[in-house]
Task: inverse folding
């Protein structure tokens, strides 16, 4: 299987603070990978660096093509943990999702009817077809997150980066999102998803990368998130607890 | 009410609306008010959405420097105003990007500085009366050439607004994402600022530079209250702007008061009416928000 996403020696610094330190891994096309780690482990910084919106050292490649910071990165879709978007604007959910079509369509002209249909289908995929014409200001937090997911889906990316997409979702929404991730993998998309919910990681993702600024574990989820693996990850060699998982 | 009385009232209304436009200077004034009433809100909707109203207000003041300079030098007032608008945009950019001055501080300093320069220019000018027309608006002095420029710019702004509405929407909502998918965010931002400058400068002959900001914002605010979505508010704002322009001009003619302030007052009345009309809807929404439906949370997942 060819590597859809190739991350090599990526380092992110904020002044003197090293948030991500020489991280390397690859993800084949069609594989969904969970990215776990305690708060401040560098998960969001790594995702932003891979998305090309965070200055970083190292190499990021998609299907062998290098991606650079501040360059258009159409094959990579990124759904932020907390979007800095203007949710107070009276745009509709469909307007927001149509922004994703710009990645592969025209960047200047008005959306075509085909792009509108694709955006409507993406909203249906995340269970929000009913609110397509509704102003985004009226959406709940979970619905807003799903609108951003639909915007990423419609981008038809080769690599999907999701930052805490399950946070605050109810059971039905979690199941729907898990199904959507499987659907993406079936279409050959590589998915890298930062999350805190370990049960979801066990059920949805076959592979898990554990991060603590560096990659501290990378392998099948059942091994990385086994009781022994968790002890290694979160208690550490020193025996001092960093964050205790709720089993 | 008898049919005779009703017919008489309709005749009086028709005469009140149509008779003023028998004179050619009023026809030119009407064209100016329609053109500015159409274009100012089209730009104003996006200035409001992007919280650029303060910038447009400062720019309307800064334009005075260019107008005064043009009167002193004896060149085109539109050209002088446009140069001042560009100068303001350039100086604000230098303060923001080079000196790292906060945005509102940079806008305030440059806008008020150029306004002060304009006031000094007005004092030095021998044609202070013409300058007061430009400040407060006098569409009765609009020439056929002015009309041609106004109509040409209105056509460009209307077509540009229709083409760029989706791009303005996505760059207003989430400029960072828009950039990652290849939307030329900087170009869209620049086009909007240039459009603001042009509308301010072109508005100076009809409603005056000080009133153009009201015509840019008030119909946009009223439309924002009345329309269900931002994109739907764009044509509504343009319609309200035209209505304010025409009604303000008619009132100005009949009560012999300056046109610019009357156009601005009509636009402000539109906001008051929109607030009153939409009050029941807001009350219903507040009641719904007060009793939110229970939202099931994911309670089966383990958190690190």
Result:
């Amino acid at each position: 299987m060819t590597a859809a996403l190739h991350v090599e020696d990526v380092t992110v610094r904020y002044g003197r603070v090293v948030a991500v330190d020489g991280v390397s891994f690859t993800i084949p096309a069609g594989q969904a990978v969970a990215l776990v780690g305690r708060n401040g482990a560098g998960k969001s910084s790594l995702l932003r660096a891979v998305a090309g919106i965070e200055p970083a050292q190292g190499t990021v490649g998609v299907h062998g093509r290098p991606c650079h910071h501040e360059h258009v990165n159409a094959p990579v879709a990124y759904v932020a943990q907390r979007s800095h978007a203007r949710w107070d604007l009276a745009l509709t959910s469909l307007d927001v999702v149509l922004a994703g079509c710009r990645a592969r369509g025209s960047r200047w002209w008005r959306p075509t009817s085909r792009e509108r249909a694709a955006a409507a289908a993406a909203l249906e995929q995340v269970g929000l077809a009913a609110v397509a014409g509704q102003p985004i200001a009226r959406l709940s937090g979970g619905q807003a997150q799903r609108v951003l997911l639909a915007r990423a889906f419609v981008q038809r990316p080769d690599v999907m980066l999701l930052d805490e997409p399950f946070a605050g979702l109810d059971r039905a929404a979690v199941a729907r999102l898990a199904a959507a991730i499987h659907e993406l993998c079936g279409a050959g998309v590589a998915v890298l998803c930062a999350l805190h919910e370990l049960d979801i990681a066990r059920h949805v993702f076959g592979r898990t990368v554990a991060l603590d600024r560096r990659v501290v574990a990378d392998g099948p989820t059942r091994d990385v998130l086994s009781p022994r693996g968790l002890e290694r990850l979160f208690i550490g060699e020193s025996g001092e607890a960093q964050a205790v998982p709720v089993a | 009410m008898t049919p005779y009385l009703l017919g008489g009232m309709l005749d009086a209304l028709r005469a009140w609306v149509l008779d003023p436009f028998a004179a050619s200077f009023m026809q030119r004034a009407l064209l100016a008010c329609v053109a500015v009433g159409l274009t100012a809100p089209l730009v104003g909707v996006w200035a409001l959405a992007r919280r650029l109203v303060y910038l447009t207000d400062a720019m309307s003041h800064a334009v005075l420097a260019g107008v005064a300079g043009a009167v002193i030098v004896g060149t085109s007032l539109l050209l002088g105003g446009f140069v001042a608008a560009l100068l303001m945009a350039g100086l604000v950019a230098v303060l923001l990007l080079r000196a790292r001055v906060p945005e509102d501080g940079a806008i305030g300093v440059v806008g008020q500085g150029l306004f002060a320069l304009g006031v000094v220019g007005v004092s030095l000018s021998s044609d202070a009366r013409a300058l007061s027309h430009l400040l407060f608006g006098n569409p009765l002095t609009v020439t056929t050439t002015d009309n041609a420029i106004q109509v040409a710019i209105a056509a460009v702004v209307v077509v540009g607004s229709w083409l760029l509405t989706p791009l303005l929407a996505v760059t207003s909502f989430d400029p960072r994402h828009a950039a990652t998918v290849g939307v030329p965010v900087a170009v869209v931002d620049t086009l909007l600022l240039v459009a603001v400058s042009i509308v301010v400068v072109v508005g100076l002959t009809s409603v005056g530079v000080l009133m153009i900001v009201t015509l840019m914002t008030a119909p946009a605010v009223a439309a924002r209250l009345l329309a269900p979505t931002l994109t739907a508010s764009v044509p509504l704002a343009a319609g309200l702007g035209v209505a304010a322009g025409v009604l303000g001009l008619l009132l100005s003619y009949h009560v012999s008061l300056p046109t610019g302030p009357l156009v601005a007052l009509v636009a402000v009345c539109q906001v008051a009416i929109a607030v009153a009309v939409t009050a029941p809807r807001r009350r219903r929404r507040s009641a719904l928000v007060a009793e939110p439906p229970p939202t099931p949370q994911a309670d089966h997942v383990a958190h690190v």
Notes: The helical segments of chain A are 43-51, 93-101, 113-125, 141-153, 171-186, 198-204, 221-224, 227-235. The CA atoms of residues 5 and 62 of chain A lie 5 Å apart. The mean pLDDT of chain A is 83. The longest helix of chain A spans residues 171-186.
